[in-house]
Amino acid sequence: MAPYAPSFAQALELLMDHLAPVTAPAVDPQPDHREVRLSQARLGDRGVISQVHVRPDVDHHGLSADELERRLLELGFVEGAAIEVIHEGAIGRDPIAVRLDDMRVALRRHDAADIVIRLDARAAAQ
Questions:
Q1: What is the pLDDT along the chain (126 residues), one digit of tens a residue?
Q2: Under a CB-based contact definition with an 8 Å cutoff, are residues 84 and 98 in contact?
Q3: Residue 49 burial by Cβ neighbours in a 10 Å radius (0-12, 13-18, 19+)
Q4: CB neighbours (10 Å) of residue 79?
Q5: Global model pTM greater than 0.85
Q6: Domains of the chain (ranges plus CATH)?
C-alpha cells in the first residue's frame, strides 16, 4: 500500500491553518494617560491640552461660546500646550492658576471646564 499523499489543495489548506496570522491583543499606546477637564485637575497635576471646546449650552457670564473660545485660544490654551496647575483659590478652590508653556494664567474653574487635558503618567500616579 502506498503512503498517504495529500493533494496540492489539501496540503495548501493544512499549511495555511498552521500559518494563520497571530493577532496580538490590542494595546493602548498610552495606557497610563487619562483625560480630565482642567476644572477637575488638582494642584500639581500636569499634562498636555488635548481639546479646547466651549460648550454653547452653558452660560459664560455674558460672553458667547465663540468669543470665550477665541479668548482662550489667544491666551495660549491650544492643543499640545504643556500645562500644570500651580495654585488653587482658598474658597471653593477657585480660581486656579496654571503654568501654560512658559507663562502663568489664572482662570475660573467654570471656564476651565471647557479645556480637556491629558495628564502626564507620572503626575497621574502621584
A1: 556 666 766 765 665 565 545 444 454 455 556 899 999 999 999 999 999 988 888 777 788 888 889 989 999 999 999 999 999 998 888 899 999 989 999 999 989 999 999 998 765 445
A2: yes
A3: buried
A4: 13
A5: no
A6: 34-125 (2.30.30.90)
* pLDDT in the model for residue 43: 94
β partners of residue 87: 97
Q: Which three cell numbers stand for residue 34?
A: 487619562
Residue 112's SS3 state is: helix
Query: 44 with 85: CB under 8 angstroms?
Result: yes
Q: Single out the residue of 43, 47, 46 nearest to residue 88, CA to CA.
A: 43
Question: Which grid coordinates are listed for 24?
Answer: 496580538
- The residue length of the chain stands at 126
Grid coordinates in use for 109? 474653574
Give the neighbor-by-neighbor strand order of the sheet with 115-119.
Answer: 35-37, 115-119, 46-52, 82-88, 96-100, 103-107
| Helix or strand run (H / E) with residue 15 | helix 8-18
Q: Name residue, grid cell 483659590.
A: 89
